[in-house]
């Protein structure tokens, strides 16, 4: 049986591993997410941690205090762990935002840490959206970088020890946040990042005005503008 390619993050990881294994002596495996067997998740986490170190330094310079909340989207989880790592030993609440997609029906979302169970994928043991045979389920997200049925194993650990809270934002909420940030701030976020913005929009009204939220904008949205316009015009 041939492999079905859905142009998802899983398919990209499949391809990267395939190329690496064919010529592992000459290829340095490179993937942007904290997934796969050791040492790749740890390597990417360290590369991405510059984001958290700079955020920590800048907020202390600007506000002379640490933030109350950190928010970041989670597919494989690289941008989130990059932000979170510098604050692990601080009294800072961390929230990872997963894609709730169209619904919580199988194939309609990629909410791995919310609805997944422990399983194996791409050489790691982690939370996984899987069928009764342990095979990864189809997933969906309006953001192409979040449609992954697994998650980096460090996020599974952080969930299990209750250091990070993981929540979901659906496609419509992400689209709305994309539009709102673009209109009010002139900053066009990637659709992946728009999930974190949407969670900030939900969270902020429940907090006192002196609370500080850092939202990680993990990518630019110029790649998504035409797609978003089509979606908004079709609604």
What does the model show?
With 235 residues, the chain is α/β, with parallel strands linked by helices. It has 8 helices and 6 strands; from the N terminus they run H-H-E-H-E-H-E-E-H-E-H-H-E-H. The chain has helices spanning 9-22, 40-63, 78-84, 112-115, 153-160, 171-185, 191-203, 225-234, and strands at residues 69-73, 93-101, 117-121, 124-128, 164-170, 213-215. The strands form 2 sheets. It has a 4-stranded parallel sheet, sandwiched between helices. It has a two-stranded antiparallel sheet with strand order 3-4. Strand 3 (117-121) and strand 4 form a beta hairpin. It is globular, with a radius of gyration of 18 Å.
Topology:
Blueprint: H1 9-22, H2 40-63, E1 69-73, H3 78-84, E2 93-101, H4 112-115, E3 117-121, E4 124-128, H5 153-160, E5 164-170, H6 171-185, H7 191-203, E6 213-215, H8 225-234
Parallel strand pairs: 1-2, 1-6, 2-5
Antiparallel strand pairs: 3-4
Helix pairs in contact: 2-3, 6-7
Features:
alpha/beta; 8 helices; disordered N terminus
Brief summary:
The protein is of the alpha/beta class. It contains eight helices and six strands; from the N terminus they run H-H-E-H-E-H-E-E-H-E-H-H-E-H. A four-stranded parallel sheet has the order 5-2-1-6, sandwiched between helices.
Q: What is the number of beta strands?
A: 6
Placed side by side, the strands forming the largest sheet appear as 5-2-1-6
Distance between the termini: 38 Å
Radius of gyration: 18 Å
| Helix percentage range | 40-55%
Q: Give the DSSP E fraction (strand runs of 2 or more residues).
A: 5-15%
Q: What pattern of helices and strands is seen along the backbone?
A: HHEHEHEEHEHHEH
Helix tally equals 8
Rounded mean pLDDT score:
93
Query: Which of globular, elongated, flat, extended, rod-shaped describes the shape?
Result: globular
What's the main sheet like?
A: 4 strands, parallel
Uncertain segments are 1-5
Derived structural class: alpha/beta
């Amino acid at each position: 049986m041939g492999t079905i390619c859905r142009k998802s993050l899983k398919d990209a990881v499949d391809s990267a591993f395939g190329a690496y294994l064919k010529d592992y002596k000459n290829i340095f495996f490179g993937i942007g997410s904290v997934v796969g067997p050791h040492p790749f998740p740890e390597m990417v986490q360290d590369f991405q941690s510059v984001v958290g170190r700079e955020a920590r330094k800048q907020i202390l310079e600007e506000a002379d205090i640490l933030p109350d909340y950190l928010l970041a989207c989670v597919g494989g989880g690289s941008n989130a762990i990059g932000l979170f790592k510098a604050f692990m030993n601080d009294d800072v609440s961390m929230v990872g935002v997963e894609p709730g997609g169209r619904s919580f029906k199988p194939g309609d979302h990629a909410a791995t840490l919310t609805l997944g169970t422990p399983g194996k994928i791409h050489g790691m043991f982690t939370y996984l959206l899987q069928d009764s045979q342990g095979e990864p389920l189809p997933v969906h997200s309006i953001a192409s970088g979040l449609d992954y049925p697994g998650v980096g194993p460090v996020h599974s650990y952080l969930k299990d020890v209750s250091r990070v809270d993981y929540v979901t934002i659906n496609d419509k909420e992400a689209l709305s946040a994309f539009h709102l940030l673009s209109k009010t701030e002139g900053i066009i976020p990637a659709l992946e990042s728009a999930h974190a913005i949407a969670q900030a929009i939900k969270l902020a009204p429940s907090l006192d005005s002196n609370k500080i939220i850092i939202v990680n904008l993990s990518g630019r949205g110029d790649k998504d503008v035409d797609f978003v316009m089509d979606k908004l015009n079709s609604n």
